[in-house]
Amino acid sequence: MRAAATLTLADRWAVVVGVSAAVAAVALFVVGGQMIASAGGSVVLLVAPERVGVFALLALLVGVSAALQTAALRLRLAGRGAAPGAAGVILAFVGASCCTPLLWPAALSALGVSGVTLLGVNMAIHRWFWLAVVAAFLTLVAGIWRTARALTSTCNLS
Amino acid sequence: MALAFLGVLLAGAIAWSVLVPRNAQAGPVRAVGGFQRVAEPAVSRDKPASVFFMSALYCPFCAAERWALADALARFGSWSNLKPALSTGGVDGFSALPTYDFLHAHYTSRLVIFTAKDIADTDGRPLQTLTSQEKTAVDRYDPRGSIPFVIVDDAFVQLGSGYSPGLLVNKRFDEVRADSKRGTPVGEAIRHEADVLTALICLGDGGKPPNVCRAPAVEALGAQAR
Fold this sequence. Notes:
The complex is a heterodimer of chains A (158) and B (226).
Chain A: H1 2-10, H2 12-32, E1 36-39, E2 42-45, H3 49-77, H4 86-98, H5 104-110, H6 115-157
Antiparallel strand pairs in A: 1-2
Chain B: H1 2-19, E1 29-32, E2 35-37, E3 49-55, H2 60-74, E4 78-80, E5 83-86, E6 98-101, E7 106-108, E8 112-118, H3 132-141, E9 149-152, E10 156-159, H4 173-179, H5 185-205, H6 210-213, H7 216-225
Helix pairs in contact in B: 2-5, 4-5, 5-7
């Protein structure tokens, strides 16, 4: 893990992509994650401490995952190592999808899903929120671990 | 890369859904308070106005809106078995908020047909189902499936509550009920939202009863909504 972190932090682009991904994740959570609501025509910011903590942690994991994958991919493109690892990419993708359950209504609405269907989606999200968060956390951590292993093997090869 | 793709996809979808209104009626316009006018109100002196309220028992915004609805509707008819209830603590960062229980209450009025549907219980489990007519209204005017959803006389729609549930935090039911008759911040907020609802109902029922619909605050809000 330490070797993977050193390789990633040495790559300026990987750091930029990681930070950008984390910031984008935070912005998406705030805007699309029902943390802003309307009441009487004015905007109300919903700052539930446990939800803010969860989103901050998941955004951090998204950032770390994106940075590691960028570093691994750039090493691969430079011909100095192995691919970032399909398992890591898939796990990161699943984790990022799973950790954004509150964004699904907005995304599904854009795809033309009906209001009544979204009502059901919103109810399910409310009910299963913590399960989705735990699943997201586990898959993101697994994705980070797989990508870090791929990076370490790159380090060993070179 | 997969994450970047997902981020772009989600950001695009959200921007699209936020920026592009999907109400079937072209160009809903802000009427009064948090209400939008989605159709011309069908003014009739012969038929009652209609009010549809869709909410969930866990939802703090629904808890806030029930206070104003209960007050406004009491001006046009009478409630029975209207008892206190609590929203679920921790939802959206709010503690359990005092509210009314519409699920077991009965409302009678010659002037207003009121329908309330609680679609989920305090744990978020499905509770009451919508009729096909109600589903059509949700699909048309609530494209993102948000609650609370209020529609008055098929012409005025509000998504969300008319004031912040934050005003009800750390208050007991009796305190809020007493406040609603006084000039406290929560009392003013409830009264204003009740006046907004009253004005919209008055537009639909032909201005009856006159002592309610001709109150200065209600008339002023009605003029804004027209």
